[in-house]
Amino acid sequence: MTSGFFQHAAVLTRDGFLAASSVGFTVSKADFKEVMGCFLDAQKMYKHGCTVNGIKYVAISGNPRTIHCKIGPEGLVCCRAKNCVLVGLYRPPVMAPQAVTAMEMVADQINSGLYNVDM
Length: 119
What we know:
Layout: E1 8-13, E2 18-21, H1 29-40, H2 42-48, E3 50-52, E4 55-62, E5 66-71, E6 74-80, E7 84-90, H3 96-112
């Protein structure tokens, strides 16, 4: 993702396979299962947080499409598109609303067919 809002990002298939990621940023199958669980059960996410790339994040907001978690000044945004899941890590000076909006815009572009993401 070249939006400039994310320090690291990854694109995963709906089956949890890593399709693309920035250098040094991985989302394991276990992480993917946890992220998908957060999409499906927000109460669990709020109670237990969400772990990605070995870091446990505290849940800030979540719905069936987008989840937002933080640890200190860093944040994690995950967004479901029609055939993939986007995961991004942002750091200051980027603010949460900017990161969430940027991630949702990319998902919207994938959903509209602007990006061809055949997985």
